[in-house]
Amino acid sequence: MTARYRARLLAPFLHAGFRALAIVGVSAAASAAMQRPTPSTETLASEPAVRSALDFIRVNEPEVLNEQARLCEIAAPPFAERLRAGAYRAAFERLGLQNVRIDAVGNVIGDRPGRAAGPRVVMSAHLDTVFPEGTNVKTTRSGSTIAGPGISDDCRGLAVVLGVIRALNEARIETAGSVTFVGTVGEEGLGDLRGVKHLVGAELQGRIDRFVSIDGAGLSITHIGVGSRRYRVAFKGPGGHSFGDFGIANPVHALGRAIARIAALEVPHDPKTTFNVGRVGGGTSVNSIAAEAWMEIDMRSSDKASLTDVDRRVMEALDRALAEENARWGNKGRLTLEKKLVGDRPPGSTPASAAIVRTALDVSRSLGLNSALEEGSTDANFPMSLGIQAITIDGGGSGAGSHSLSERFDSTESWKGTARALLLTVALAR
């Protein structure tokens, strides 16, 4: 979930009055339907077929955990999710989804038709991990804990999606609207949400009424999308010998000037706005003036104006660092600066008063779960930014060490996460 940042919101926000939500790319009928109160989830959970599905989920959770570990042991490094996508497609086919396919960018998609075409609900999880090719992805178990890179983020979400499909099938639940299940690519790192951007903007453009991403462990609900902009920046010059060519502009020194300026920036605390120089590199040896020095910069905020402002000031800091380094040496060995935008994840939000958020909270309460509303950076950002009702939910259990080789998932009562996802799927497809 790409360095997901979370912050608990004040309780009064949960009780804010219902506000109109602009629906972009959604049918007028679906938009009107979304403004109506959802059916009581308590009543829904007591329906025989739904009750049967929930009972099945509790019994079937060990198989969900097995699937979680199995998928986790299929490597899915950034931009190379093909093997895991193939396994996920095969799972969709075994479970009887229709029109199962891998789209142009690598998303795995399968449909479960309802009595009518709409509303169309998308339930998704992401296939990719942050771990590079060659990482040992073998999982280990100790008691209720499964350990392995990506076991929570997002092998848990992938397994919950499959658990929901299996429970719907076992209980022979026919939803009113259709449900499309998806395994997306490119959610992590420099993937720049390429999977969900293609899904929402091309593959299913204008045909998504409600979007749910299942991502990671826990029981929270993310309804505010933290946007980010990421740059790879390079200072370039002729380079030379550290002694013989001393007196020419130095890309590494310019990089240092830029980092110092960026580090001194003041940013808002509310809305929380951040910046980070995450990676640096360049040079050939200790006794060489580098021909190139580069860095990667990440900026984040849930507020579009604040994100735009910090972006502008970081760009100004880079330009000033370039000018200072060139001026320092009288433009000898003059440097150039390249700025490449490598990530543009839009901020967005679904109001706490929106039907999808109220339904998710109702579902949690009906199962005796305490779910906090949070903000984060997930696949839901993109549909949120288009005005589509979208949220991200956790997949149950608890996790630790996300994005590390020691990542762990504790499956204690993790079936509750699968049960919530099932009940939410049925409720939203009504």
Give the class-level CATH name of the largest domain. Alpha Beta
Mean pLDDT: 92
For CATH, the homologous superfamily of the largest domain is named as Zn peptidases
State the end-to-end distance: 29 Å
Radius of gyration: 24 Å
- Shape by Cα distribution: elongated
Fraction in beta strands:
15-25%
Please identify, by name, the CATH architecture of the largest domain: 3-Layer(aba) Sandwich
The tally of domains stands at: 2
CATH topology of the largest domain: Aminopeptidase
Number of helices: 11
Largest sheet properties = 9 strands, mixed
Q: Detail the poorly predicted runs.
A: 2-37
Sketch the topology as an H/E string, one letter per element: HHHHEEEEEHEHEEEEHEEEHEEHEHEEEH
Query: What helical percentage do the residues reach?
Result: 25-40%
Question: What does this molecule look like?
Answer:
There is one protein chain. The chain is an alpha+beta fold and 430 residues long. It has 2 domains: 11-226 and 347-428, Aminopeptidase (3-Layer(aba) Sandwich), CATH 3.40.630; 230-345, 2-Layer Sandwich (Alpha-Beta Plaits), CATH 3.30.70. Helices cover 34% and strands 23% of the residues. It has 11 helices and 19 strands. The chain has helices at 28-35, 41-46, 48-72, 82-94, 155-170, 194-203, 251-263, 304-328, 355-366, 381-385, 415-428, and strands at residues 98-102, 108-112, 121-126, 140-142, 145-147, 179-184, 210-214, 221-225, 227-236, 240-241, 273-282, 288-289, 292-301, 336-345, 348-349, 373-376, 389-393, 398-400, 408-410. Strands 1, 2, 3, 6, 7, 8, 15, 16 and 17 form a 9-stranded mixed beta sheet that branches. Strands 4-5-19-18 form a 4-stranded antiparallel beta sheet, with no helix packed on it. A 4-stranded antiparallel beta sheet has the order 11-13-9-14, covered by helices on one side. Strand 1 (98-102) and strand 2 form a beta hairpin. Helix 3 packs antiparallel against helix 5 (155-170). The longest helix is centred in the N-terminal third of the chain and has 25 residues, at 48-72. The chain is elongated. The model is unreliable at 2-37 (pLDDT under 50).
